[in-house]
Amino acid sequence: MAERVPTPDAGPPRGRRVLSLTDLQPRGADAALITLCRRIVDAEAACHRLYEAECRAEEQADQPGSRQAGHRRQRLMALQAALGRRFAATPPTAVPGLRAKVRVYLTRCQHADGTVMPDGWDLHALCREVLQLTEGDAWSGSAHPAPG
């Protein structure tokens, strides 16, 4: 049975910049890896939306709503863990697969709004450099410069 990832129907949360892999077509040697990377990014976005729903429900003292969102988020986090293990075990064999993997790593060092996490500057810089080399002007990078 294939794992199901909720699709981000409502789009990114307001004011948030979500990393996209839509321009990377899953074909060629790395088709499965690119598809996996898309599923990971979709699952991360869905998990973030469930977390926000859970927080809103808690703020409104909606315990059933909070529990429901919390349970759904926990199930999704288990799926994310399984996807993450497959991701770590799947090396890219061509540049498109490398680009997809680097974009996923980029999500690991950025907040949902695109700002770089305090301890993520080194990984962010490396990801930015790899994407600049492999995508050139097609990749705009982060609008947030490195500190000092």
Protein model, in words:
With 148 residues, this protein is an all-alpha fold. The chain is 57% helix and 0% strand. The chain has four helices and no strands. The N and C termini lie far apart (50 Å).
Notable characteristics:
148 residues; mainly alpha; 4 helices; globular; disordered N terminus
Explain briefly what this protein structure is:
The protein has helices at residues 31-59, 63-89, 95-107, 121-135. With 148 residues, the chain is mostly helical. The longest helix has 29 residues, at 31-59.
Fraction of residues in helices?
55-70%
Query: Which structural class do you get from the secondary structure elements?
Result: mainly alpha
Largest sheet: none
Which residues sit in consecutive blocks of at least 5 with pLDDT less than 50?
A: 1-18, 142-148
Chain-averaged pLDDT: 78
Number of helices: 4
The percentage of residues in β strands lies in under 5%
Distance between the termini: 50 Å
Shape annotation? globular
Q: How many distinct beta strands?
A: 0
The helix/strand series, from N terminus to C terminus, equals HHHH
The Rg value, from CA coordinates, equals 16 Å
Topology:
Layout: H1 31-59, H2 63-89, H3 95-107, H4 121-135
